Amino acid sequence: MKSFTYERARSPGEAASASARVQGAKFIAGGTNLLDLMKLQIETPAHLIDVNDLGLDTIEPLPNGGLRVGALVRNTDLAADARVRRDYGVLSRALLAGASGQLRNKATTAGNLLQRTRCPYFYDTNQPCNKRQPGSGCSAIGGINRQHAIVGSSDACIATHPSDMAVALRALDAEVETVSADGKTRTIPMADFHKLPGDTPHVETALAPNELITGVTLPPPVGGTQIYRKVRDRASYAFALVSVAAIVQRDGSGRVAVGGVAHKPWRMDAADAALPRGAKAVTAQLFADAKPTQQNAFKLPLAERTLAAALAKAKG
Amino acid sequence: MREDFELNMSRRGLLAAGAASAAACAAPSVAGAQQSRPDATTTKVSLNVNGETRALDLDTRTTLLDALRESLHLTGTKKGCDHGQCGACTVIVEGRRINSCLTLAVMHEGDKITTVEGLGTPQNLHPMQAAFIKHDGFQCGYCTPGQICSAVAVLDEIKAGIPSHVSADLNATMELTTDELRERMSGNICRCGAYSNIVEAITEVAGRKA
Questions:
Q1: What is the pTM assigned to this prediction?
Q2: Residue B63 is part of which domain span?
Q3: A102 and B186: CB-CB below 8 Å?
Q4: Prediction ipTM score
């Protein structure tokens, strides 16, 4: 790990302005992904701003009937919150499908959104990677890419976003609240928060430099049967090959977001509209432009079958 | 003094002595915790480890795991992968199990930390330690301190009603089944494959038959 200086910020504004003041600064909350990457010198911050004392660790009801989840709410606490379990079951389920008990106790809501891909070439500093070292090339294209993206990828990068939580937040139409170094706040819909790789796979989110996530808002409960179905190589503690977050209403309408297939949670209006016609119709829309590799083409039928299983369960 | 102390103690003896041995090896004490200087790459931190306040002056890079093992000589907590994948480094911080390899010691100012040495001693075993011995919940023993810390916390998590991936109903009372224990313990890898005996040990402590 490279040497770094360390400070504890006392307010969100102070954290954001400290980040603008010190070159090479990074925020640290749970640290479960950042420290992992720092040990491998994939992340090499010169300064860490500890944001754990910012008081952003509560879940508050909103006047519109929704919930505001503080950026520092731990994954365990968000999954176990009685309101989330009752009204946003897909979010509880997605969180519980991710990582291990130890990691969920430490990992935060904001950090989960900002976690980096687990592409093995991103993790191997001996290999070219456009995300780690822009312009160096992509080792996954033509390499071992069974786990990688099948849709929305580019000639520069075929990495996936690893979060389960983000897939549920996308299905729920959650929004991300931030504060900038100049004190300005803004709200970013989950649909726009994560970027497709394009020519700049190192730019992963809509966040500006030094912008700090302060929370995530959940719209008023939408009801329906909420299911998160994750398919992975082990029964527990593994990243998704494919995951499906589905919210299905009694009349068969609803929403579907898919994880493990793209650089961001994958959801389309046209696919949601096709939901009453079944899994095949939905995945035909979602993956019309898919470009799988030879090794991960299995994700196309797997996504359809995983959604079919979720829809069958929703029918009861 | 530190060298003499280590030379005169067997590895197991050092583990057994637990907090007492660490106290003898403590870094020079400092008067209260201080904020690190913004230009410093070392910082003072005070941890409450197994009921004792321990003041340390550490490189900011020091993980909680390395602080426990290298600075406080509490070597019960093990370093396996050092990347949060194996669970050998599991300790209980402020009542919650975490991977001590994926957190910085400086981020734990004033925190209450329980390691396997703080759960019990050879003369006065924690019920979970006794159950692991009785049920042969290990072979090489390397993952065992992490397994035991994790298992103790898992029972508290079930009691607190925290659901898991295999809980059939998110809103029902959490049950203590074999499936629940296997899922909740999935962050602790045992390469000897003692899993079934580990589940039996935890089940006994929970007051149920496996």
A1: 0.92
A2: 40-119
A3: no
A4: 0.97
